[in-house]
Amino acid sequence: MPWSSRLNAEIYDRFVREHGVYRWLNEHLVEDAEIAAARRILDLGCGTGATVSACLARMTAGAEIVGVDAARAMVEVARANLHDSRASFEVAPAAELSGVTGLASDFDRVVSNAAFWQFRWPQRVFAGIAERTSPGALVAFNIPAERLVDEEASVHSFQIALDSEIRSEQTGGSTQDPAIDPGQLLSMAAESHLEPVARHRRVYQGTQGELVELMSIPAMIGRVAAGLDEERRDAVLERVRRRIDPDERVEVPWVTFVLRRR
């Protein structure tokens, strides 16, 4: 599993702390999910705890949050980062919520930041969410606009340079996960009694340098440079750094979906 190594977790955690995109995403996610009014919150793909931390800042004293991630290394870093009695963590894939013993079945909020588009079995994730939530619960998750078939997103100099450098190392250039059809995704959600409430498109103002550092996370570069070993991936990123202006401003659109459990 690409996210499972301790080194990957530590590099990811450093990126989250040093750059603004995850903080920006979490601020909007917490607002869209109305976390201040929540009693019991579930964070899917919790990573090293950034979203849990953002929720804790808005939660009431009596509320609780559980972070769930398939990568034990990520959860271990999250536990080391956060020492709040309202927060706890579980190691489990998002598609296997029904198998997590001791996990509550009356969550009134579910959030997932910068993770849902990477879940391989969204239909099973929705089914697990339905099983673990009470009627009226809000579910909020975000997806990069470039991963959605009905959204537009600019191609940045960094992306062009990265694809070119990967192509120089292997035939076929960089690889991408299949684009997501929101209609199909929401149809899956509807099968689990989750109906759409809102859809928000927002644009993050970042830099080319931040995009390069994001790809320095082993699991991230591994998604687009499959087949290259660590040394060749590092060489690719170094050449990309030399080709782009790290201070050049870029706009990166994200789309947040808010659903309600019937």
Offer a few descriptive terms.
alpha/beta; 23% strand; single chain; seven-stranded mixed beta sheet
Written description of the protein model:
Helix 5 (122-132) runs parallel beside helix 7 (182-191) and helix 6 (157-169) crosses helix 10. The chain has helices spanning 6-18, 21-32, 50-56, 72-81, 122-132, 157-169, 182-191, 208-215, 218-224, 230-243, and strands at 40-44, 64-69, 87-91, 107-112, 133-144, 194-207, 249-261. It is α/β, with parallel strands linked by helices and 262 residues long. It has a seven-stranded mixed beta sheet with strand order 3-2-1-4-5-7-6. Helices cover 40% and strands 23% of the residues.
Helices and strands, with pairings:
Blueprint (H helix, E strand, L loop, with lengths): L5 H13 L2 H12 L7 E5 L5 H7 L7 E6 L2 H10 L5 E5 L15 E6 L9 H11 E12 L12 H13 L12 H10 L2 E14 H8 L2 H7 L5 H14 L5 E13 L1
Parallel strand pairs: 1-2, 1-4, 2-3, 4-5
Antiparallel strand pairs: 5-7, 6-7
Helix pairs in contact: 2-3, 5-7, 6-10
